[in-house]
Amino acid sequence: MNAIDLARQAYAPVRPALKTERAVEAQLLTRITARLTQAGSDFPKAAAAVHENRRFWTTMAADVSAADNKLAPELRAQIFYLAEFSEQHGAQFLKGKVGLEPLIDINTAVIRGLNGVGAH
Length: 120
Hints:
The chain is an all-alpha fold.
């Protein structure tokens, strides 16, 4: 290899690291949670964020319900419960009966878990 080839190799664009499924889930949930938080009293924005949140949690529920899911049964049940709660709470929000804080709190806790924050 000559000096030109070495220089090309040294200054070539670095390929981004592949993201794990957990990282992708954390990134998506972070974006959704930011939208929930930023919506404030703007109902159309909040409703769109709630819809996106419900879609995320519906996907998670389907994933943990799959027979080939590798997570521990207890964790699968907990995720499914969070999905059910998020679905029901989102519906109640859209009816004007509850606020967004519980959804934001749940998402934030799950993001921390996905990122390994607070894990032992």
